[in-house]
Amino acid sequence: MKNKNKYCGTVLFVGLPNAGKSTLLNSIIKQKISIVSPKVQTTKDQISGVFNKDKTQIIFTDTPGIIEKRKFYNKHYARMTFNKDIDVDLNCIIVDLQKDINDKNIESLNSFSKKFKKNFLVLNKIDLVSNKKMLEVSSLLNSKLNFLETFFISAKKNKGIEYFIDRVAKYIPQREWLYENDILTDKGIKYQISEITREKIFNLLNKEIPYTTEINTMIEDKKEICTIYQDILVLKESQKSIIIGKNGEKIKMIGSRARLDIEKLLKKKIFLNLIVKKK
């Protein structure tokens, strides 16, 4: 049944790689929805977190970073920067205050912002720069692009997040909710578990291997124990030995770190079985 008193809208997070989009999404939802690593382009797919407060539902959507260099990235990453099939009520451009902004960056951000009627500028990592730096970046970007509002936040330290959410809520239209009250993300549990293991691979391995690796997950949930079977698929035979490591040390590290996060997600003890295979 329709409820005229409810509000629902989609808010997009875009920006250059490593701007803190995934960390911001996790901070808002207060749960690890989107994986995080120091490497660029860790986010592979669009992923949404669902935030509910009173009569308002905001669907915050994290995207892969805007690609300017394609050294390790395949066509999938380029295509997934933004899925045009979703309706966006508000676009938020996330900027890392630590990084210098050049003309090419501005051109990329400007080109993307023009796709949307309403744009916010979100300047992240205020805890790591001076006030002078914050004002310089804000003045520069506001002189080049058209933003409705500008925000200064630290996604990692949870500073400025509550005010940011409150302002976003003012732009959310009257509309039926898309998700039930207890839904936190648009992704299924197998996807979330696969992403946890992919995050550990990103954090423990170098070069192109994390970008070309895929994870297939199967769950066998019994009363006694929940068993997670995961196939780690790589492009080359030589990459198998790199992921496994000497005496199996690397795969053990991946497994032990992934298991802890999966147990937090499922709120139960699990047995994790990892097998590395060539695609």
CATH top-level class of the largest domain: Alpha Beta
**Any idea what the CATH superfamily of the largest domain is called?**
P-loop containing nucleotide triphosphate hydrolases
- The backbone outline, from C-alpha atoms, is globular
Q: Please describe the biggest sheet, giving its number of strands, its sense, and whether it closes into a barrel.
A: 6 strands, mixed
Q: Assembly type of the shown chains?
A: single chain
Low-confidence stretches: 72-80
Alpha-carbon Rg, integer: 20 Å
CATH topology name of the largest domain, in short, is: Rossmann fold
| Overall pLDDT level | 88
Give the strand order of the largest sheet, numbering strands 1, 2, ... along the chain: 2-3-1-4-5-6
* Total domain modules: 2
Structural class: alpha/beta
Strand content: 15-25%
If classified by CATH, what would the architecture of the largest domain be? 3-Layer(aba) Sandwich
- Approximate helicity band: 25-40%
Taking the alpha carbons of the first and last residues, their distance comes to: 47 Å
Q: Helix count, per DSSP?
A: 9
Summarize the structure in words.
This protein is an alpha/beta fold and 279 residues long. It folds into two domains: 7-169, Rossmann fold; 189-278, 2-Layer Sandwich (GMP Synthetase, Chain A, domain 3), CATH 3.30.300.20. The chain has helices at residues 21-29, 75-79, 103-113, 131-144, 161-169, 189-204, 209-212, 237-244, 249-266, and strands spanning 7-15, 47-53, 56-62, 90-96, 119-124, 149-152, 214-221, 226-234, 270-278. Helix 6 packs antiparallel against helix 9 (249-266). The N and C termini lie far apart (47 Å).
